[in-house]
């Protein structure tokens, strides 16, 4: 074999193989690489969007939590205010009831005192009449009068 003919045939085979590769093999490989590159770029863009939406969601969550805490604090303050108002109202009702009971008790005590005074007056009047009766029945004697008055004092 001739070296020149071998070299020429190898060059022709090389160029034919290069042409075949560039025409039929290379375009699908380039297309597959471009599609892969596009998918990777889309995936990175989606990841960036996901990170941004995560940040937005976390900010929204933080705002919602802050609003919820504020509303809870307002509700708690309102409940405490209502409870305090109910306590004050109960105290006022208790005080009014206490004053009414005390007034009723004082009135009852005064009535009992009046009844006791009237009963005492009746008893004193009866004793005075009885003492006067006894004095008049006995003979008029100063010593006897003093003794009767001492007995009267003892009875009172």
Automatic annotation (TrEMBL):
GO terms for cellular component: endomembrane system; plasma membrane; proton-transporting ATP synthase complex. It is found in: Cell membrane; Endomembrane system. Keywords: ATP synthesis, Cell membrane, CF(0), Coiled coil, Hydrogen ion transport, Ion transport, Membrane, Transmembrane, Transmembrane helix, Transport. It is a single-pass membrane protein. Residues 54-126 form a coiled coil. The keyword Protease does not apply. The chain crosses the membrane at residues 6-29. InterPro entries: ATP_synth_B-like_membr_sf, ATP_synth_b/b'su_bac/chlpt, ATP_synth_F0_bsu_bac, ATP_synthase_B_chain. Gene3D superfamilies: F1F0 ATP synthase subunit B, membrane domain (1.20.5.620). GO terms for molecular function: proton-transporting ATP synthase activity, rotational mechanism; proton-transporting ATPase activity, rotational mechanism. Its main location: membrane. F-type ATPases have 2 components, F(1) - the catalytic core - and F(0) - the membrane proton channel. F(1) has five subunits: alpha(3), beta(3), gamma(1), delta(1), epsilon(1). F(0) has three main subunits: a(1), b(2) and c(10-14). The alpha and beta chains form an alternating ring which encloses part of the gamma chain. F(1) is attached to F(0) by a central stalk formed by the gamma and epsilon chains, while a peripheral stalk is formed by the delta and b chains. This is ATP synthase subunit b. It comes from Derxia gummosa DSM 723. The gene is atpF.
